[in-house]
């Protein structure tokens, strides 16, 4: 069918989205979702996330629905599925279709390997907050995203620099919430979205990593962990 953007455009068209409609999207995301809606002449309506899963929060979606809402895009963030059961019930109540987006077709073995790596890291990392998984959900760990405690972005960025200096690749998964990006510049305050963009860091969890690679990630992170504890 083409790129993920093409697939989303197709699904939104199937849902009946037309120019002038509103499409509810998360702001803690890459820009693709909002830009697809915009390319169809629709207005992206940005909503906050569930702080545990980084996926769009159903309560925030519920509050954002209006008479112009034509679709809700549920992005499966970093491989964690959005709460589709709750969102589907919400969509049914408002008579608005829900479109899932963000799960990539991948070999089962690669997903299983990442999940094993994530379990290893979560059981051993200290000084960072490992990603929780909603009960009953299956996390694919396209990214292994932790929160760095402390003073938000300055501490997170300093920690990332120290990891890279010690040979551990890491990246900030969402530098700027989409609603504050140059293309939109919306005057919104989405508290959990802002907090996640300041605190989160993606650590390596690739399927081809070895146990030694994982041990190095743990050793380096835990060696720096004391620097991350907030002052008493």
Classify the helix fraction into a percent range.
Answer: 25-40%
What name goes with the CATH superfamily of the largest domain? Aspartate Aminotransferase, domain 1
The percent range for strand residues is 5-15%
Give the termini distance in whole angstroms. 54 Å
> How many separate domains make up the residues?
2
Task: Give the mean pLDDT.
Answer: 93
User: Main beta sheet: strand number and arrangement?
Assistant: 4 strands, parallel
Q: So what's the CATH class of the largest domain?
A: Alpha Beta
Number of strands: 6
Order of helices and strands: HEHEHEHEHEHHEH
CATH topology of the largest domain: Aspartate Aminotransferase, domain 1
- Overall geometry comes to globular
Query: Which structural class is indicated by helix and strand composition?
Result: alpha/beta
Number of helices: 8
The gyration radius over C-alpha positions equals 18 Å
GO molecular function, one term: transaminase activity
Pfam families: DegT_DnrJ_EryC1 (PF01041)
Keywords: Aminotransferase, Pyridoxal phosphate, Transferase
Protein name: dTDP-4-amino-4,6-dideoxygalactose transaminase
